[in-house]
From TrEMBL:
PANTHER family assigned: FAD-DEPENDENT OXIDOREDUCTASE, RHODANESE-RELATED SULFURTRANSFERASES
Rhodanese domain residues: 24-105
CDD domains hit by this protein: RHOD (cd00158)
Organism: Pelobium manganitolerans
Lineage of the organism: Bacteria, Pseudomonadati, Bacteroidota, Sphingobacteriia, Sphingobacteriales
Pfam families registered for this protein in UniProt: Rhodanese
InterPro entries reported in the protein's UniProt record: GlpE_sulfurtransferase, Rhodanese-like_dom, Rhodanese-like_dom_sf
Protein name: Rhodanese
Amino acid sequence: MFNSIFSKKENDLDGKNFKQKFETTDKAELIDVRTPGEFSSGSIPGAKNLDLMAPDFQSRVQKLDKDKTYFLYCRSGNRSGSAASLFEKLGLKSYNLVGGIGAWPR
């Protein structure tokens, strides 16, 4: 029982694997799900901001291209993990950066 609760999800990747998969995936899009304030204080180059806490987040996600693969991150990996679950429910392929922006290899 506990194994299913605490098990690592298939789409959760550490920094090295996340970056490598992002760089080698066709039609990959990098999305920062932090607030606009957090995003403006520094982000991974090339990332787009899609604030998980915005009231229109789900409707914006529903309009995304289902042919793309989305690479999601936040500060710690919690919000992007929640976002990745929503993406999955909506039929979108996504990966979560475990450990958040700080785990992105420099």
